[in-house]
C-alpha cells in the first residue's frame, strides 16, 4: 500500500509517499480502507519533532490520526460493526491507503468521507478545552484564532451551550465567524481594545499560538481562565497547555449527535492527494484556514 512517512524531523520536505506493508487490526481495533484523512496542526508539530522530548517517536514514522473510510478488517473483541461499514474516527498513520483505528463511530448520515474525516480531533479538542477553561452558559468566551477547524467547532458547541463567543480572525474570515454565531473582530494592532468594546471576557482560548497569551490573561484577569492548544511557552504566564486528549468515543458520539441535529457543520476548505501531503502541511502551518483541510485517498 501507499502511505506518507518521514525518516527525519524537519520541514514539509521530509514527507515521502512510500510503499509499506499493510497494517492489521489488533484486539479492540478495526482497519479501514481510508477514503479521507484529516490534516491537523499536531501532524506537522510531530513532524517537526516538537513533542519528541515528552513523547519520543521512533523513525521512520507515519503521519495522521483522523480518518474516515470503510471497515475491511475487524479485530478480536470488536462487536457491532461489519465489513463494509462506513466509519470515522482516530488511529495512527492515517495518511495512507489503509489505517488501523482505535476509536471510531458510524459515519453520520449525509456526510461525505472528506467531511467526516475533518471532525474527530477537532471536536474532541473543542469539547475538552471548553470544559477545561470553565466556560458556562451566560459566560463570554474569547477565542483567538477562531476560523480553523477547532475554532469552528468551539464556536458552534459554545453557541449550543448558551455561551457567547468573541472570535478573532483575519479580515477575510469575519463574516464566516458571524455565520457561526460569534461576535467577530480582527487580530493585529489594537485588537485588545476591540475585544473590550464587544464585552467582558470570562474565559479565553488560544488556538493559533500567535503570541497573545499575556493579552488573554489581561482580558480575563486570571491565567487559570485561559487555555492554549498551540503556545508551548504559555506555562510561563501561568496558563495551561491542553495537550492530553480526552475520550475520543465520547467525542465522536457528541459530534454525530450535533451533526444529526444540524448544530455542527465544519466546512472542508481544501482537499489534497496523498502525494500532496507536504503542500497540505505548508498550508496548515500558514494558518488562515476556514474550516478543515483534508487528504482524499
Automatic annotation (TrEMBL):
<dbReference type="Pfam" id="PF13602">
    <property type="entry name" value="ADH_zinc_N_2"/>
</dbReference>
<feature type="domain" description="Enoyl reductase (ER)">
    <location>
        <begin position="10"/>
        <end position="295"/>
    </location>
</feature>
<dbReference type="Pfam" id="PF08240">
    <property type="entry name" value="ADH_N"/>
</dbReference>
<dbReference type="InterPro" id="IPR036291">
    <property type="entry name" value="NAD(P)-bd_dom_sf"/>
</dbReference>
<dbReference type="GO" id="GO:0008270">
    <property type="term" value="F:zinc ion binding"/>
</dbReference>
<keyword id="KW-0521">NADP</keyword>
<dbReference type="InterPro" id="IPR002364">
    <property type="entry name" value="Quin_OxRdtase/zeta-crystal_CS"/>
</dbReference>
<dbReference type="GO" id="GO:0003723">
    <property type="term" value="F:RNA binding"/>
</dbReference>
<keyword id="KW-0963">Cytoplasm</keyword>
<keyword id="KW-0560">Oxidoreductase</keyword>
<protein>
    <submittedName>
        <fullName>Quinone oxidoreductase 1</fullName>
        <ecNumber>1.6.5.5</ecNumber>
    </submittedName>
</protein>
<comment type="subunit">
    <text>Homotetramer.</text>
</comment>
<dbReference type="GO" id="GO:0005737">
    <property type="term" value="C:cytoplasm"/>
</dbReference>
<keyword id="KW-0694">RNA-binding</keyword>
<dbReference type="GO" id="GO:0003960">
    <property type="term" value="F:quinone reductase (NADPH) activity"/>
</dbReference>
<dbReference type="InterPro" id="IPR020843">
    <property type="entry name" value="ER"/>
</dbReference>
<dbReference type="InterPro" id="IPR051603">
    <property type="entry name" value="Zinc-ADH_QOR/CCCR"/>
</dbReference>
<dbReference type="InterPro" id="IPR011032">
    <property type="entry name" value="GroES-like_sf"/>
</dbReference>
<dbReference type="InterPro" id="IPR013154">
    <property type="entry name" value="ADH-like_N"/>
</dbReference>
